[in-house]
Amino acid sequence: MKFTKLHGLGNDYVYVNCFTEDLTGVDLPELARRVSDRHFGVGGDGLILIMPSERADFRMRVFNNDGSEAKNCGNGLRCVSKYVFDHGLTTAHTFTVETLGGIMTPVVSLDQEGKVEQVTIDMGEPRFERAAIPMTGIPEEKALEETIEVDGEAFTMTAVSMGNPHAILFMDEVLDEDVLKYGPKIEFHEWFPERTNVEFIQILDRQEIHFRVWERGSGVTLACGTGACAAAVAAILSGRTDRKVTVHLAGGDLFIEWRESDNHVFMTGPATEVFSGVYQGSIPYK
What we know:
cytoplasm, isomerase, DAP_epimerase_DapF, diaminopimelate epimerase activity
């Protein structure tokens, strides 16, 4: 199986071009677990498939390194955008990508060599209703500035869906030990029947946010694009920041804008190709 390794600010996945690679009958969750293993596989936060679509120009499927399938992935979208343009699957600078969280529209910016350097993606409108997250409770109610308790500690949390679930915690200071301790417990908290991504954010000023993430199905990662969008939305909604925000992630910065005119969230950031190869490990079939 041919693959390419790309990362968005250190959020790295194994990418497979399903226009040329036939994965019919393959146990995709198990394949994701095998290729993601950093000791016995290629290594990565998961597996992303670039596929044909009947609804858009391309389709993206995202499997975390535990085999679970994600509805969306902002860093993955930027890398898919770089791959399809740089590898000649499209010559358009704007195109559409189908995800389980909806159809996204990336716009690529090129470097002097004609390769994709930055990608801006219309991530659509954020959702706040408990049913959309999903969360327990009254379906149409919103979980804004709620108090969530874990191991006797209380956190102020806002829940946002960017096509996938996010629990944003507002912190006076973001500490790595808190991410490791509370991230997995909130991911599996009873409020979230499908689990959740957990963002720990510290407001630096009206235009900057310090950000760390515990990703559902992957654990600590260096970046999360949908998480950065959700964190910015939560901060803007509560009046803590302006509508254009730089989010400082462990792997680098993303620029997020939540437009008042159409309620859409736009994410801009880099994508990097690292290497390509052939996976010669066993392919699991159903």
